[in-house]
């Protein structure tokens, strides 16, 4: 299946919001590298899997306001809501810059702030 990078990200996010973390991870390279600017860096699919198990107790809810693609990059700007273990919801604004390699998400640089 030959999909463009925007479509790949949209499919990955659809899996994530459905609670299918493994489905999301199938769109990532094994050596995926995620940097949350000013916070933490995750190296490798297993580190991302552990992060998702801890942070996505319930599937995150996204509102994508802009999705911009050029060459091997896709930038997503929007809002995300996450619930903690007590059911309290926190809302964030985000700007994710994804780098793609051979049709998979290989790197993320995420700028996330609580709103």
From TrEMBL:
It comes from the Bacteria. SUPFAM superfamilies: NTF2-like. Gene3D superfamilies: 3.10.450.50. Residues 14-107 form the SnoaL-like domain. InterPro entries: NTF2-like_dom_sf, SnoaL-like. Pfam families: SnoaL_2. This is Nuclear transport factor 2 family protein. The lineage of its organism: Bacteria, Pseudomonadati, Bacteroidota, Flavobacteriia, Flavobacteriales.
């Amino acid at each position: 299946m030959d999909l463009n990078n925007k479509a790949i990200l949209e499919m990955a996010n659809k899996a994530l919001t459905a609670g299918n973390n493994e489905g999301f991870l199938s769109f990532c390279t094994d050596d995926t590298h995620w940097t949350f600017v000013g916070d933490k860096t995750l190296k490798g699919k297993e580190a991302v899997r552990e992060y998702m198990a801890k942070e996505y107790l319930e599937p995150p809810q996204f509102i994508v306001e802009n999705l911009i693609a050029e060459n091997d990059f896709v930038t997503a700007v929007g809002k995300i809501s996450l619930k903690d273990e007590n059911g309290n919801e926190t809302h964030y604004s985000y700007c994710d810059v994804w780098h793609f390699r051979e049709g998979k998400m290989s790197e993320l640089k995420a700028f996330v702030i609580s709103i």
